Structure to design on (176 residues):
């Protein structure tokens, strides 16, 4: 029984292939229908923290690209990249980031980083597949390898040694 479940869990019908990661205008990114494809309601506290982080580093795209469903085409062969900025997309994963970018684009209209988002584009998903993809996106977005104190210290040591090497090299050049 376990192997049947495992086989079903990793079967081809549960794996989604995207047509690619693209930079899309946030004006074309919409929330999914609440009744059928919304995994969870937005957390306004989290959006507030994310907003502060995006203000400090606007060019940072986030932990992973948004997962979006293109609404205008039903098969990958119909998708034309030249129209990517015209198509409309439902944000299945990354809705908090979208809401944050929309707020920041109103507050800082001159900042171009708040008007675009990296997105992994999917086509032709059922409601069930869309919810599974949203869940997978949510699970994967927590998988981050943070820089440790040890990493920072070893990087500082390298920089100190490199600076010392350059200083000695410059002293040798001056003496000649």
């Amino acid at each position: 029984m376990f192997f049947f479940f495992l086989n079903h869990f990793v079967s081809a019908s549960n794996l989604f292939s995207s047509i690619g990661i693209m930079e899309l205008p946030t004006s074309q990114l919409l929330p999914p229908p609440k009744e059928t494809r919304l995994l969870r309601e937005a957390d306004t506290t989290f959006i507030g923290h994310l907003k502060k982080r995006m203000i400090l580093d606007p060019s940072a795209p986030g932990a992973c690209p948004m997962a979006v469903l293109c609404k205008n085409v039903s098969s990958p062969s119909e998708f034309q990249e030249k129209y990517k900025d015209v198509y409309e997309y439902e944000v299945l994963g990354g809705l908090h980031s979208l809401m944050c970018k929309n707020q920041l684009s109103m507050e800082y209209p001159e900042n171009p980083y708040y008007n675009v988002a990296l997105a992994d584009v999917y086509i032709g998903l059922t409601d069930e597949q869309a919810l599974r993809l949203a869940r997978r996106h949510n699970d994967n977005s927590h998988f981050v390898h943070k820089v440790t104190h040890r990493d920072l210290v070893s990087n500082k040591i390298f920089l100190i040694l490199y600076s010392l090497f350059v200083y000695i090299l410059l002293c040798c050049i001056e003496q000649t």
